[in-house]
Amino acid sequence: MWSSINILNILLPFFYLTTFLIYFYDFQKGGRKFFHSKRVFLFLTLFFHFLYLLMRTIAFDHPPITNVFEIFTVLAFSISFSYFILELVTDIRGTGPFIIIISILFQIISSLFIEDLLEVREVLRSNLLGFHVFSALLGYSGITMAAVYGFLYLILYKDIKLNRFGLVFNRLPSLEVLEKLSFYSAVIGFILLTVAILVGIIWLPRAFPGGFSYTDPKLIGTFAVWFLYGIGITFKLLGRWRGKKLIILSIIGFLLAIFSTMLSNFFAQSFHSFY
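The structure assignment produced for this chain is given below.
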């Protein structure tokens, strides 16, 4: 099984790169040549990636969350999987390359530096911890997608104001659709972050009886991101916010998530640093 894991670890960046190139070619050229097949390539990439994650979990007897490079491969999968679900639901296929390229970056870094750890702390073998981390990563994937759609909204908004009607204008969905995609992604991220937070509040104090603290930097950062998106979603549903204001909020929330993650991982002491 270990040789299969190593082979997939090498191949996954190429799978993602091939899928990206097909989506990018279709974005540039348009037409129907890869309209359906690109989704098949994405599905196959996700299938092999899921198989890789499952094999790692079985072979090393713990969920793939024990170090930052395992987290990166899970994050690469989560982002593309979230996009795949959103594409199936909305049938909007023109934004794929802008999402998949993020998965490529995370997977390349992971494939280059991932470690195969057999000896880990017992808490890392917990499936409940794996569920907590996977929920959080899927939540952050939704937030990442909301920010990407937000950036695309601002790019298209600027082109329209400047009367530039080129490739971006012709290939991207309308401003209204991009706003909806950003909002739907934010809702998905918010719900999954809520699940991760609830599991963490209930289970983590038992898992770390001597080290758990509600003032943990990563917890505070996650709560701040969750609260900010909660405000934006609530105001959107009440009809108070829409358009550019909501888009800017989603981008601010994403930047806050990145900043809080970097702060808690590299500069602050956290019980979350066990991996």
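Interim note for the steering committee: The chain has nine helices and no strands. The radius of gyration is 19 Å.
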